[in-house]
Specification:
The chain is mainly alpha-helical. Helices cover 60% and strands 5% of the residues. The strands form two sheets. The protein has a three-stranded antiparallel sheet with strand order 3-5-4. It has a two-stranded antiparallel sheet with strand order 1-2.
């Protein structure tokens, strides 16, 4: 029986690029926390599009597709799904909605995993929520219909106990403050995929579990930028990392690093994309106060009142002065210099 133990994450050795990506994720996550408080409407406005992209991306990875118009209408519950692919899409939509709305109330246990799978498969004729009853494979369907076998998972006989042991190992590591959540999550997901506990839908379930685990740990970028679609766009790299990290998995000698690196890279790309979308939204649609705040708070160098007036020509100097005064009073920015050379920069957090 394959054993699960994440204590190696105490002193895991990673390269400087991976460390840098983790630090950047934490920096961007903290920035988004502050932004959400200041610009809730901007973030809320991104959610519907991200959900549709997530439903598309996660299903498209498995070759489950429909037209863009039908996909949007199914996600918005305007039409009934027709055919196997649309039924699968509708199920993922429902399971994704549950993760988005109730992640705080969903414990990480086998009951939650089986319930999410049951919801995901509820529109199809396939049994949802039941562990596999015969052995299966991890593979990739190519454009010509051929399937490339990446890995042969645990047997059906071993699966129930393995899933219980996986949950126990995650809970133990989750209680250890020296283990980073952002490293633990991809290890859990890799092991889930390597067990492949269901006859169908394991890939899509892994992405639902990724969101659930991340949301519970405060990494909510997936609400605003689709992680599933980012994986879909870079799926060759995703499959390469899965293949590399699955080697010698049965024997417990696999290397988690390739999959961790791909996971961290994907999440970093999502946070960068969220940063880009926020800048575009606030810069073109935000009200004048929001645009002034954004210009000052996100300037890498001290910025002057004159530069703000030049960058925001449709906003009066009086309003810019008022907003600067309020931000100083709130302690969010500070003055640099005096008189005509006065500039403003974000305060150290």
């Amino acid at each position: 029986m394959r054993r699960f133990d994440y204590s190696f994450l105490h002193d895991i050795s990673v390269d400087i690029d991976l460390v840098s990506s983790v630090m950047n994720i934490e920096r961007l996550r903290e920035r988004d926390r502050n932004r959400i408080e200041r610009f809730p409407k901007t973030y809320f406005g991104m959610m519907d599009a991200a959900k549709i992209q997530s439903v598309f991306g996660s299903n498209a990875i498995e070759g489950i597709i429909t037209t863009d118009g039908r996909l949007k209408d199914i996600c918005e519950r305007k039409v009934k799904p027709v055919g196997h692919d649309e039924l699968a899409i509708a199920g993922y939509r429902d399971a994704l909605d549950l993760v988005h709305t109730s992640f705080k109330d969903l414990p990480i246990d086998t009951q939650t995993i089986r319930s999410l799978h049951r919801i995901m498969m509820s529109y199809t004729d396939e049994d949802g929520g039941e562990w596999k009853d015969h052995d299966n494979i991890i593979g990739q369907r190519l454009s010509d219909g051929r399937i490339v076998v990446h890995f042969r998972p645990l047997s059906a006989e071993e699966t129930p106990d393995a899933m219980e042991q996986l949950i126990l190992a995650y809970r133990e590591a989750d209680q250890d403050p020296t283990i980073l959540d952002i490293l633990l999550i991809p290890c859990f997901i890799l092991d889930f995929l390597s067990i492949h506990p269901f006859m169908d839908g394991n890939g899509r379930m892994s992405r639902l579990l990724t969101l659930l685990l991340m949301y519970k740990k405060g990494y909510d970028v997936g609400k605003y930028v689709s992680i599933e679609q980012m994986i879909y766009k870079n799926r060759p790299d995703y499959y390469d990392s899965l293949t590399s990290s699955s080697k010698d998995w049965i024997e417990g000698r696999n290397d988690y690093i390739p999959f961790i690196r791909n996971f961290i890279g994907t999440i970093f790309l999502c946070y960068k994309e969220l940063d880009r979308r926020f800048a575009k939204s606030v810069g073109t649609k935000g009200n004048k106060t929001d645009r002034i705040e954004y210009a000052v708070m996100n300037s890498l160098l001290p910025i002057s009142k004159k530069e703000l007036c030049q960058n925001l020509p449709d906003i009066s100097e009086a309003m810019i002065v008022n907003v600067l005064g309020r931000l100083i009073q709130e302690g969010r920015i500070k003055k640099v210099g005096a008189g005509p050379s006065t500039r403003y920069i974000r305060s150290e957090e």
